[in-house]
């Protein structure tokens, strides 16, 4: 509510329909690949569709955000428009929180209910009827049916790479905040420095994460297919990793835009949105570190 | 044409562009609202045709028309299309048309994203419907797609089903973000939260529910995808997972989802009943708080869909009592609607007829819901036609009647013409008779033990099923009359005044009929 200047309603735009076509082509491509893989037929067509769809998406992102940046530079956005963007970003992050909640919920359910029940807790029916030898432990190294789901030999030690990664991400949250303070005081070279450090910390995090995955797959037999521990471990850390990747790309793009002079000391919501997203990714990691790695 | 930058911003105050590009590239909330509503109606007819296939097969015992595998595809697709293709987009369409007009805004807060939210839907449903022609057929595991039916034993098209659901989820989340941003940020000066029309309030809360649970739906279909293609064991006990986990995650989405489909309907009824009672809505603040309470409670009742799955006793008790608690705020709402009508000067135009039928028939659906909430008796009702009767009573005369009511109520504002009142009333009565014929007997066959989702049944259920099938065809054919009435109203009819209805209140009635292409270019003052 409150004060209303003329609210900017954009002209007709081609970007949404391009985005839809890109999204559709990408998903149909991935679906075709997966279906062909499970049938054992040639998935090349699917890969092509995926490639084309993905290219369209990238083109759309450049075009659409380019449009928004131009409009913003042309001074078309009022303070009220700015608030719309803020609400939009906040609720988007909330939706992401709920997405992760589903996977955390699955983790807690498996760990505290499903696995104990399979091991005979409660009335003991599961245990006698299904797998009498199964013992419920966490991390679950021996699955109920080891022929179908061979379990991992061991799990990742939280006090080596994961601890290091925690420190990296926490530090990056601090560096992006420093960059924010420097934007407000208009110390441009420092802003660039601290943002670059943030991107670098994110990239290092990802490097370690990839190393950890390779280690898990090749030496520990900890894989997506090694039972519920591997399932929850890789799905949670994997989706988090994808978000770090995305967050780092966003911050990099914002850094490029900053260098082009898109943001002022007063108006820099693009930067703030990226920073919010980065903090969100950071908080998710802290939860992962505690609930997936340590406990 | 992309958004033109650098032009003076008064340039966008002209009318719509010409031709097909108007609809594809539009950023206008009315255009997008109309597209949502038409899309929803097409889906309603497609999903309805599938329901008629089901009812034709069930017209008499034995196997007549379709093979069981196809019957399963029909029940599944009917549910998915009606929920995600008909009811939800219809309410988003109404929100698009009405929220900016009701809060005194020029348009939705994020108009380009609004266009994207809509255009995803036709593509998503093309994907879903195309699965009917794929090897192994369409999804056949019920609209609730329980694992392992939807994972281990699913047809190959399940992969496209999953991506279709992802697309619908993206569309819903963006649509909801837009509604929230519009309501929280674009209200006219003076319109405080507690002065907002109830339709706006219910949509604000619905949008919150959508943003909270659509990601959970995306999560659960992603888990399915991983189980099917990447060897994970979310829903496989052999790897330490649990098929029941699927039901928990699904219903954590699913229960708020049913309120997503009914809260805006509450809002519609709360707009229409005061108008035709020529009284203010009784108990406005309690309506707002009741809506919010229902939304909060919707997060802690999901396992009442799973009483028969073998929950621990404490779980059964908790979810039973929590569910019954919902009857309290819902009762407040019904009480308020009835009190609004009490001693009002009532007239019974078509929207009012639909709204009154909504109150009565939705209450029947609410009471059968209360019966189902009682865990020990749910063991008997579970998976019978009683459940089918229950949720069709809250969805058809609940959600869909309110959509009809809204269409008749606001059509004069949208088109500038009055609809044909006599035909409208005929549409109401034929629908009313048809739906009660269809769904009321289902209570009886359900209590007598007829299981749902089965193409054949015992001889003893034949009479009631025959009545249901006849009612279904009556209801289905009647909807073509609705199409005719709407088309007729668009093409012409008595000129509508700005006020349209004598007792109507709210900012949308201060705009001329038909409403101008851009709603409030200057924000109105609300006292």
As residue ranges, the low-confidence spans of chain B are 1-12
Output mean pLDDT of chain B.
95
Please give the alpha-carbon distance between the first and last residues of chain A: 46 Å
DSSP summary, beta strand count of chain A: 0
Rg of chain B, nearest Å: 23 Å
Name the CATH architecture of the largest domain in chain A: Up-down Bundle
How many separate domains make up the residues of chain A?
2
Q: Identify low-pLDDT runs of chain A.
A: none
Name given to the CATH homologous superfamily of chain B: Cytochrome c oxidase-like, subunit I domain
- DSSP strand content of chain A: under 5%
CATH topology of chain B: Cytochrome C Oxidase, Chain A
Shape of chain B: globular
Give the largest interface: A-B, 81 and 91 residues
The CATH class designation of the largest domain in chain A is: Mainly Alpha
Helix/strand structural class of chain A: mainly alpha
Describe the largest sheet of chain A. Answer: none
Mean pLDDT of chain A: 94
Percent of residues in beta strands of chain B:
under 5%
Q: What share of the residues of chain B lie within helices? A: 55-70%
């Amino acid at each position: 509510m409150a004060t209303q200047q003329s609210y900017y309603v954009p002209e007709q735009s081609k970007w949404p329909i391009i985005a839809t076509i890109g999204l559709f082509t990408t998903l149909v491509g991935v679906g075709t690949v997966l279906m062909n893989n499970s049938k054992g037929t040639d998935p090349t067509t699917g890969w092509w569709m995926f490639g084309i769809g993905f290219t369209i998406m990238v083109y759309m992102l450049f075009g659409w955000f380019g449009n928004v940046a131009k409009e913003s530079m042309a001074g078309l956005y009022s303070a009220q428009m700015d608030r719309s963007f803020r609400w939009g970003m906040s609720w988007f992050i909330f939706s992401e929180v709920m997405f992760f909640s589903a996977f955390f919920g699955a983790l807690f359910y498996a760990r505290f209910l499903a696995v104990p029940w399979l091991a005979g807790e409660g009335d003991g029916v599961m245990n006698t009827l299904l797998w009498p030898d199964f013992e419920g432990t966490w991390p679950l190294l021996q699955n109920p049916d080891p022929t179908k789901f061979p379990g991992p030999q061991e799990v990742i030690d939280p006090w080596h790479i994961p601890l290091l990664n925690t420190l990296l991400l926490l530090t990056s949250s601090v560096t992006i905040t420093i960059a924010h303070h420097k934007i407000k005081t208009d110390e441009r070279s420092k802003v660039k420095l601290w943002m670059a450090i943030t991107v670098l910390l994110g990239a290092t995090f990802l490097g370690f994460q990839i190393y950890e995955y390779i280690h898990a797959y090749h030496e520990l037999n900890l894989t997506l297919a090694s039972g519920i521990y591997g399932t929850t471990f890789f799905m949670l850390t994997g989706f988090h990793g994808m978000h770090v990747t995305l967050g780092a790309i966003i911050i990099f793009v914002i850094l490029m835009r900053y260098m082009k002079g898109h943001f002022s000391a007063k108006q820099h919501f693009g930067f703030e949105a990226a920073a919010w997203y980065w903090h969100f990714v950071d908080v998710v990691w802290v939860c992962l570190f505690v609930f997936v790695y340590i406990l | 044409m992309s958004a033109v930058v650098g032009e003076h911003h008064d340039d966008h105050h002209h009318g719509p562009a010409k031709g097909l590009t108007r609809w594809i590239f539009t950023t206008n909330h009315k255009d997008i609202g109309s597209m949502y509503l038409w899309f929803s109606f097409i889906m309603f007819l497609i999903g309805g045709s599938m329901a008629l296939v089901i009812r034709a097969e069930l017209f008499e015992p034995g196997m007549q028309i379709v093979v069981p595998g196809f019957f399963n595809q029909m029940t599944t697709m009917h549910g998915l299309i009606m929920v995600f293709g008909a009811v939800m987009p219809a309410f988003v369409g109404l929100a698009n048309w009405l929220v900016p007009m009701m809060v005194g805004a020029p348009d939705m807060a994020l108009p380009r994203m609004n266009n994207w939210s809509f255009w995803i839907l036709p593509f998503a449903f093309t994907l879903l419907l195309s699965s009917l022609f794929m090897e192994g057929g369409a999804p056949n595991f019920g609209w609730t797609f329980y694992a392992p039916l939807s994972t281990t034993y699913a047809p190959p098209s399940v992969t496209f089903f999953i991506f279709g659901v992802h697309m619908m989820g993206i569309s819903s989340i963006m649509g909801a973000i837009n509604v929230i941003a519009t309501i929280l940020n674009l209200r006219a000066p003076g319109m405080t939260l507690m002065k907002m029309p109830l339709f706006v309030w219910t949509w604000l809360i619905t949008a919150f529910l959508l943003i909270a649970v659509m990601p959970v739906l995306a999560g659960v279909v992603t888990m399915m995808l991983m189980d099917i293609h990447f060897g994970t064991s979310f829903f496989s006990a052999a790897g330490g997972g649990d098929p029941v986990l699927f039901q928990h995650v699904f219903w954590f989405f699913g229960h708020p989802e049913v309120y997503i489909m009914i809260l805006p309907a509450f809002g519609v009824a709360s707009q229409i009943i005061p108008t035709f009672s020529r009284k203010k809505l009784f108990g406005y603040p309690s309506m707002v708080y009741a809506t919010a309470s229902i939304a909060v409670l919707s997060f802690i009742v999901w396992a009442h869909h799973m009483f028969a799955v073998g929950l621990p006793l404490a779980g059964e008790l908790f979810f039973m009592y929590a569910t019954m608690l919902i009857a309290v705020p819902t009762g407040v709402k019904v009480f308020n609607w009835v009190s609004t009508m009490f001693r009002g000067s009532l007239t019974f135009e078509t929207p009012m007829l639909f709204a009154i039928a909504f109150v009565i028939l939705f209450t029947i659906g609410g009471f059968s819901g209360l019966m189902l909430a009682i865990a020990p008796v749910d063991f008997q009702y579970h998976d019978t036609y009683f459940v089918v009767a229950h949720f069709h009573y809250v969805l058809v005369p609940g959600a869909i009647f309110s959509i009809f009511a809204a269409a008749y109520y606001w059509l004069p504002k949208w088109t500038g013409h009055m609809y044909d009142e006599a035909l409208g009333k005929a549409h109401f009565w034929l629908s009313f008779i048809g739906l009660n014929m269809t769904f009321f007997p289902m209570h009886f066959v359900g209590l007598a033990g007829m299981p749902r989702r089965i193409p054949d049944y015992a001889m003893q259920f034949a009479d009631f099923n025959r009545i249901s099938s006849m009612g279904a065809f009556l209801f289905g054919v009647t909807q073509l009359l609705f199409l005719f009435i709407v088309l007729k109203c668009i093409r012409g009819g008595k000129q509508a005044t700005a006020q349209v209805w004598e007792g109507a209140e709210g900012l949308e009635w201060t705009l001329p009929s038909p409403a101008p292409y851009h709603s409030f270019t200057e924000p109105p003052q609300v006292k």
